[in-house]
Amino acid sequence: MPKFIKVANDEKLAHTEALIEIKDDWSMINISAVHMHCMDDWIAPYEANVSWSQEHIPNVRIEEWEGDSHLLPNNVYDRIKQVIMKMISQQ
What is the pTM assigned to this prediction? Predict the structure, then answer.
């Protein structure tokens, strides 16, 4: 197996435990936060993930759209850039 697949597998195997370790920390976020999520995500389901963010991250803003599945950084670079620039300009 290529190294990048081994690294991704190691990350996924540790993911649940790592999230459990920090589960109480999300409510302490005191800066602007944006949860960007595709409504068609087949790996991290939209409803469950967005609901969790809304319940645990103070003042989180949700950015949603259809059609890009799970590969957000690869497919919507321009949108990510717009969201980041908007956050910076509102500081």
Answer: 0.75
